[in-house]
Design brief:
- This protein is of the alpha/beta class and 127 residues long.
- It has a single domain, classed as 2,3-Dihydroxybiphenyl 1,2-Dioxygenase, domain 1 (Roll).
- The protein is built from 2 helices and 8 strands.
- Strands 1-4-3-2 form a 4-stranded mixed β-sheet, covered by helices on one side.
- It is globular.
- The protein starts with 8 loop residues before the first strand and ends with a strand.
- Keywords: Lyase.
- GO terms for molecular function: lyase activity.
- This is Putative enzyme related to lactoylglutathione lyase.
Length: 127
């Protein structure tokens, strides 16, 4: 039934132009804006997600909306920092670098969280 067409996900942002600047300029993802101001973000390996503007009605997601799998978590965290991204810190979970080291504790991937300009939670993770 639902396997015949294209599927995608989406989340809201405060400002689509600001989001485009971040996803394209900071994270290096290809983005296009349609005539309604909806941002199409091209994900690695061909997936897409949309970010739609809600202006003052935007409420940041309280969960991770996008996860980016990387080979080297420390290199990814370093690149994010070089691009001005500040990692979220969670007491008792993340280390001084801002990474939750799950692999060494047999508790899932190594993961680091950060926010987009609208306050939505994103992550880089390494299995």
């Amino acid at each position: 039934m639902l396997t015949t067409g294209h599927a995608f996900s989406g989340f809201s942002v405060r400002d689509a132009d600001e989001a485009k600047e971040f996803y394209e300029g900071v994270l290096g993802l290809a983005c296009t804006m349609n005539e309604m101001g909806i941002l199409d973000i091209e994900l690695p390996h061909g997936g897409h997600v949309i970010a739609y503007p809600k202006g003052d009605g935007h409420v940041p997601a309280t969960f991770t909306v996008l996860n980016f799998e990387v080979e080297d978590i420390d290199a990814a965290v370093g690149e994010l920092a070089e691009n001005g991204v500040v990692l979220e810190r969670y007491e008792g979970l993340t280390d001084d670098a801002g990474v939750a080291r799950g692999k060494s504790q047999n508790r899932g991937p190594d993961i680091a969280w950060f926010l987009d300009p609208s306050g939505n939670i994103l992550s880089v993770l390494s299995n």
